Amino acid sequence: MTTPDAVIVDAVAYAQAIEDAVKASAAYYAGGTSVLDDDAYDRLVRAIAAWEDEHPEQVLPDSPTGKVAGGAVEGDVPHTRAMLSLDNVFSAEEFTAWTASLTRRVGHDVTRFSVEPKLDGLAIAARYTRGRLTRLITRGDGTAGEDVSHAIGTVEGLPDELAEPVTVEVRGEVLMTTAQFEHANEVRTAHGGAPFANPRNAAAGTLRAKDRAYTVPMTFFGYGLLPLDDTGPALAELLEESAHSDLMTRAGAYGVNTTATTAVPGITVSTVEEVLARVAEIAGLRASLPFGIDGIVVKADLAADQRAAGSGSRAPRWATAYKLPAVEKITRLLAVEWNVGRTGIIAPRAVLEPVRIDGSTITYATLHNAADITRRDLRLGDHVMVHRAGDVIPRIEAPVAHLRTGEEQPIVFPEACPRCGSGIDTGEQRWRCVNGRDCHLVASLSYAAGRDQLDIEGLGHTRVVQLVEAGLVTDLAGLFALTRDQLLGLERMGETSTDNLLAALAAAKNQPLSRVLCALGVRGTGRSMSRRIARHFATMDLLRAADAEAIQQVEGIGTEKAPSIVAELAALAPLIDRLVAAGVNMTEPGATPPAPATADGTDATDDGSAPAVADAGPLAGMTVVVTGAMTGALEKLSRNQMNELIERAGGRSSSSVSKKTSLVVAGEGAGSKRTKAESLGVRLAAPDEFAALVADYVDAGPGTEPSA
Ligand SMILES: NC(=O)c1ccc[n+]([C@@H]2O[C@H](COP(=O)([O-])OP(=O)(O)OC[C@H]3O[C@@H](n4cnc5c(N)ncnc54)[C@H](O)[C@@H]3O)[C@@H](O)[C@H]2O)c1
Ligand SMILES: [Zn+2]
């Protein structure tokens, strides 16, 4: 209930709203997919009710308000006693108010409540004659339902024969458990049918379907037991006078399934506080239940109290549904991402148009595997029913196929591992990178060897795969332990390439700390962040000694990122130690280490001496943006190397031009950034001019100190 109700402005909109609601209800109760999720439907009905309050003389006969099933369903088998809906409460306050009105109607405080889960299926009346199940009837409009006796034998928990030869009517909910729902959709799609949107929908559709080529099981939970016309007078009276909880015990003894068999059995309690405690308990178990519930039903347990409270035309006054937040919403599928897990499993993940479900905004949902996508015929742009319960990862239940516009696009499956670029083993339902558990290693080594990190020439992706597959390297440090013989033993590895690779590896050991950090792949720190950290701490030792608070001194690192960087570095400690042992440089040339903190925790520089952070260099205090192609002395530098150069010279590199930019180095072909700099009056420099400005820093290659 986070979205406000729609407001109906005139009679035309009112009539349209009624038509929409009736159509949605008809689909909802018949097992079709409603174009509205429950929240949207409830909001629409509330808007209709609000308009009717203002215009009581214009209420249309089709209006869903005040009717069982919104008046959208009919039936031709009369019920012995009306099968009603339930009124709702949404909070402890509303519930307490409800008990107060119950007290008024009954004439005294109700001191025995029955509390049971509100099962999310559909109501059914099962008639037993001398112990044999003879007829199944849906709720219909409440006074008459539809005969669905064809479903006898497919509903677990509703035995063909009771333990006693009694003539009674059992009422309860038919639903599909999560497992039954998945099975039903498998069978259904195998028969060419469209998958059901959710278990409730599947149960409604399955119960009403006649002459299907297949049957799929459902489950029944009883919550009512009453006499039929030919029930013997003694039993009839007993049933009329029994408390709800006793009727449930009796139903169980007859062999009917009830909530007593679940993790959330119906119980009786005597106070409002106890009811609320049980509500909280059931709500807490909701996500772990093997079937859906959408609330908790609270009933006056004693027959006398129920009689005294009576019933309205739509709902009894002696019971109410304490509704839980909806766990399903309709939203759109925008994209599918493919992520590689620790074991190399490649799993699709749905990117959704953000939608609020049960208090959180959902933007991703699991999609299990590729076959699952195909089976459910999901397409990009589809409206989809998304389910989220508790902390369980949200999942897409099904596309709302009749909302398709024709603009939907097929979902493209990856042809290579999205992490390491190797092949994909599609032999099983769950796709897997051919490198399996080593996928991550291949990817992280390839990344570490990349041009902007350790820049190890000759160590491309294929070579990395080769090294990993041969078992020669198991982590980054292993690269530096490779021997000439080991390399020569590899396929397509001649003397020259071996020596070149060894030389490249030796040179890589002299890369500055910023690049080593980046190569380590510390989560949350890309290239520029690694540079900022390295310049701030100057040495790996000082960085490793820093706590979260100290790391927050680095620009751009906040309270969230800092502890995670500390944790990552701690986890990487053994690897860092091995890199140090292998002789890898762990200092940042040109950076001055921060001054140590004094005993009282303040910076030593607080006494007015020079600030610890190096502010020397020709670019001190400047923010510099590079655009276009570099020429002259800078020609060979990649964009990343240019940024390194700027930072060595005391500046700050940035990729976008703003009023805060101090200087834009505009090379050949510079376009919009140059124009923007001009319009903002930001200083521009040609590559040669800039090269002269930072001349002292240009040649400061890996591991060398600036000549200044
Ligand atoms: N999405 C749509 O288009 C659409 C259309 C119509 C209705 N709806 C939804 O249906 C709901 C209202 O419909 P309703 O009248 O079928 O249900 P309800 O919420 O009014 O509840 C009454 C029903 O609860 C069930 N129930 C479950 N456990 C029970 C228990 N322990 N004791 C007694 N009854 C129990 C019974 O089937 C009973 O008929 C609304 O929440 C609405 O959002 C949605
Ligand atoms: Zn891979």
Automatic annotation (TrEMBL):
Matching entries from Pfam families are given as: BRCT (PF00533), DNA_ligase_aden (PF01653), HHH_2 (PF12826), OB_DNA_ligase (PF03120)
Its needed co-factors are: Mg(2+); Mn(2+)
Question: Would the keyword Membrane turn up in this protein's UniProt record?
Answer: no
| Organism annotation | Streptomyces rishiriensis
* Gene symbol of the encoding locus: ligA
Q: Which residues form the BRCT domain?
A: 614-698
Here the segments flagged for biased composition (Low complexity) are 597-611
Q: What is this protein called?
A: DNA ligase
Q: Which UniProt keywords apply?
A: DNA damage, DNA repair, DNA replication, Ligase, Magnesium, Manganese, Metal-binding, NAD, Zinc
- List positions binding NAD(+): D38, D39, A40, Y41, D42, S85, L86, E116, R139, E173, K299, K323
